[in-house]
Amino acid sequence: MHEIRVGFEDILKKQLELAGKNYELLSTHGVKAFNVMGAIGSGKTTVILRLAEALRRRGLRAGAVAGDVAGDDDYRRFRQAGLPAANINTGDDCHLDAHRVHHILEELPLDEIDILFIENVGNLVCPADFPLGTEMDIVVISVTEGGDMVRKHPKIFAQTDVMVINKVDLAEVVGVDPQRLVADYRTVNPHGIAILTDAKIGRGIEELLSALGI
Amino acid sequence: MHEIRVGFEDILKKQLELAGKNYELLSTHGVKAFNVMGAIGSGKTTVILRLAEALRRRGLRAGAVAGDVAGDDDYRRFRQAGLPAANINTGDDCHLDAHRVHHILEELPLDEIDILFIENVGNLVCPADFPLGTEMDIVVISVTEGGDMVRKHPKIFAQTDVMVINKVDLAEVVGVDPQRLVADYRTVNPHGIAILTDAKIGRGIEELLSALGI
User: Which one of A38, A141, B120, B152 has the fewest CB atoms closer than 10 angstroms to its CB?
Assistant: First the structure.
């Protein structure tokens, strides 16, 4: 399928340019943005909501973009929590891209947002290929996904600044050792920071904020 | 991104032809094959291993193909369980396709296999677009993925013959009602069969075999 690959590289180049423009636009408005990746059900939305609460306590305002193939469940959760938010449905695409994000940034009240969380489409494969123009890339995994997900998806972990291991309260029940996941992460990404969370009860959220440089 | 779409349709047409060839090849050898899709950590490998055990008790021989972006953890589990097995690493691709499956079928001892399980790459987006030439499509989800995954991925559920809701033993702990997932599935796929399993202990595996027409 060589023909696709060639077309794909052209698109990636274009996406990189657009990502740069997004970064500029965000900087102009003083917004720090984070690309939050992770599989379906890893707890991305809950982690973002807990981060938003912690930011509020520090007098900082969070906003959110919900990216999904279909539906608006996450978007509605962000809105119910009082966050400025926007929804992106990608249809058949398994990732967000800089172009879609650019359009959505135009809809958001950027001057009322300090920190913007962009929740990517839920999987550990496609989002790795598409820079959005964010400050940092975060990947959220859950111990319930099994002990082998870092080894199975080295690429996304290698290029992600922070790995969040969520639902650590269930580690024993599902028989997965979070420290083993941290070790796998170190192997593919010696500079990444690993944070253990139980986002439901807010555990690890302050440590995560520090890891994000906030 | 219109250019990709056009190329994509050509590829899909080619894939359909190849899927047809796979189906023929499998039929010639008397092999019934199943495309097992589902997110990372939903329990696809464990479900397949339990099905293989149940088949063995009936005097039927199972084989398996492990599809992953990287790594061979699942392949090794299949081999340790004594199954004829093959491993496909897709690199950057988030799904198997008929072409890759065709090559791997040539490596497998098809005359020693009655039922072949093809475990697709772990996510609920991309595999939906690529027919492999199997008898049926199965999607395995886990209650730990949250209560909204059918609504978030209507496409894959709409076209899947059987939905397996796995890890039902954890339903209460994670606060997800399996019956709500079944109701969502009915909405997008009135003809699909939903089976509840706890594959770790083999619960629901006999019902699943019946659903697969075995």
Answer: B152
**Residues 55 through 114 of chain B touching chain A, CB cutoff 8 Å:** 68-71, 73, 92-94
Q: What is the mean pLDDT of chain B?
A: 93
Chain A interface includes B6 (CB < 8 A): no
What is the domain count for chain B? Answer: 1
Contact A40 B149 (CB under 8 A): yes
Q: What average pLDDT does the structure give for chain A?
A: 93
Domain that holds residue B40: 2-211
C-alpha dihedral over B4, B6, B9, B10, to 10 degrees? -100
Q: Closest Cα of chain A to B84: distance in Å?
A: 21
pLDDT exceeds cutoff 60 at A6: no
- From the list A42, A187, A194, the residue with the least C-alpha distance to A127 is A42
Residues 6+ apart with CB under 8 A from B18: B97, B98, B99, B102, B133
Q: Which phi-psi region, left, alpha or beta, contains residue B213 (left: φ > 0; alpha: ψ -120 to 50)? A: left
Q: Burial of A160 by CB count in 10 Å (0-12 exposed, 13-18 middle, 19+ buried)?
A: buried
pLDDT in tens, A180-213: 999 999 999 999 999 999 999 999 999 999 999 9
- Complete edge-to-edge strand list for the sheet that includes strand B62-68: B85-89, B62-68, B115-119, B32-38, B136-142, B162-166, B193-196
* Residue B10 at interface with chain A, using a CB cutoff of 8 Å: no
Task: Kindly determine whether residue A69 and residue B155, on different chains, have CB atoms separated by under 8 Å.
Answer: yes
Alpha-carbon gap: A85 to the closest alpha carbon of chain B (Å): 18
CA distance A209 to A191: 17
* Residues of chain B under the 70 pLDDT cut: 1-8
Check B41 against A124: CB less than 8 A apart.
Answer: no
For the domain that residue B119 is a member of, what is the CATH number? 3.40.50.300
Query: What percent of chain A clears pLDDT 90, i.e. is strictly above it?
Result: 86
Tokens of A147: 């002990």
Burial string for B76-111 (b: 16+ CB within 10 Å, else e) reads ebbbebebbbbbbbbeebbbbbbbbbbebbeebebe
Q: What are the two backbone dihedrals, phi and then psi, of residue B67, each rounded to the nearest 5 degrees?
A: -110, 125
